[in-house]
Design a protein that fits this description.
By secondary structure, this protein is of the alpha/beta class. The N terminus is likely disordered.
């Protein structure tokens, strides 16, 4: 169980989940795309892959290619997405993902997916993982991506739940910062520090079940 399980979840009314690395294991596809993109644009592969995690593709392209104008940055970002759309062979749900979604359904807790991907990529990956998101917020729905809180605040408004009653689940520093900036409790994967630290989504599912049982 997470070491931080003392966090008060009595106000919890919704769960907002990041997609890549949190709800969907797409690590292989993401790495392949960013390394291929880096070779095309003449930047270091390791640097591109490291900077990309948790950020929208246009923000990463802008940081890696500072000499490009806005139109060229958008074209470079679109090329990166093009490399990912159909690379789904090893995309699957993360450990505990379906267990967590079953718990949310049994408890009647609404949930949403909040991702830095665009809608086409998000739908492709969620479908490959066998997940049907009731609410999907993508980078196309907001004016600023993570770590800006806009996407998480939009998800909360869409679900009709105050930000303070939402739990964000993330696997990246930009996502954690976005959740906290939105005034939400954050559970973190991959050993990152937040209000809760969980090994996988199965940990969170068991925590929610225990909390519901009193």
């Amino acid at each position: 169980m997470p070491e931080d399980a003392r966090v008060d979840l009595t106000r919890l009314r919704a769960v907002l989940l990041d997609m890549d690395g949190t709800l969907v294991d797409s690590d292989g596809a993401v790495e392949r795309a960013w390394r291929a993109w880096a070779r095309e644009f003449g930047v270091r592969e390791d640097e591109a892959f490291a900077l990309a995690h948790g950020h929208p593709s246009d923000a990463t392209a802008r940081r890696l290619l500072p000499g490009l104008d806005d139109d060229a940055v958008l074209a470079a970002a679109q090329r990166q997405l093009d490399l990912q759309y159909d690379d789904l062979a090893d995309v699957r749900a993360t450990p505990g993902a379906h267990e967590l979604l079953d718990v949310l359904a049994r408890r009647g807790l609404p949930w949403a997916v909040v991702t830095s991907a665009d809608v086409r990529l998000a739908r492709n990956r969620l479908a490959a993982a066998g997940i049907d998101a009731p609410v999907l917020v993508t980078v196309e729905d907001v004016s600023a991506g993570k770590p800006d809180p806009e996407s998480y605040l939009l998800a909360a408004r869409t679900l009709g739940v105050p930000p303070g009653d939402c739990l964000v689940v993330e696997d990246s520093e930009p996502g954690i910062r976005a959740g906290h900036a939105a005034g939400m409790t954050v559970a973190a994967l991959r050993g990152l520090s937040a209000d809760l630290t969980i090994e996988d989504l199965g940990d969170l599912a068991r925590l929610l079940e225990e909390w519901a049982m009193g």
